[in-house]
Amino acid sequence: MLIWAVLDIAEKIKGIRSHGMTTLTWDRHKGHAYSYDVTELGYNYRLDEMRAAIGIEQLKTLGKNYLARKEIVEFYQDMLEDLDKVSIPFRNYPNESSYHLFPILLKSELDSNRFRERLKEKGIQTSMHYPPIHLFSFYRKKFGYKQGHLPITEEVGKREVTLPLHPQLDHRPVKYIVDEIKNILASSF
Predict the structure, then answer these.
(1) What residue segments make up the domains of the chain, in order of their start?
(2) Is 80 exceeded by the pLDDT of residue 9?
(3) What is the pLDDT of residues 65-75, one digit of tens each?
(4) Which pLDDT belongs to residue 1?
(5) How far apart are CA 91 and CA 7, in angstroms?
(6) CA atoms within 13 A of residue 124's CA, in its CB half-sphere
(7) Lower CB density within 10 Å: C or N end of the chain?
(8) What is the pLDDT of residue 164?
(9) Which letter, b or e, does each residue of 19-40 get, where b requires 16 or more Cβ atoms within 10 Å of its Cβ?
(10) Which of 71, 92, 82, 101 is nearest to 181 (CA)?
């Protein structure tokens, strides 16, 4: 029974990757079909040859980049661990991380927007991953979500700041970033 469910999901994914169309341009070009139907909402998730080639090359550096990001995350964690106004989510997560992002949480009384602005003034790009999705316009309209429906999610969203993380980052810029965080937190920002 499970195999049929998996096959159904695979077929659905195959359809929505190409605008929800029942046949692809290649099928029509080869004469296997002359028209198509759109059976559900779909997207253009087909890779062209150039992006596929880049993806194949990127896969070759996946392990090396993973280890580089892991090292930077561990360095951040060591440098930030004594700050009482910052906590590191998932620090004690029992499984292996992908080291995709490095989020921190500020104490609730701090203004994360002002904090991010102060870091920007020092040339440090930050972001917020991820704003509470139930407050995006689509989910508000489609499902009627409102401010207050998920108070814990909203609270975390107000406090989260994502620090720079990429495989080319090394200890020197991370030290600069952490030093600036300490300076900002020590001021009345």
Answers:
(1) 2-46, 62-186
(2) yes
(3) 999 999 999 99
(4) 64
(5) 37
(6) 23
(7) N
(8) 97
(9) bbbeebeeeeeeeeeeebeeee
(10) 82
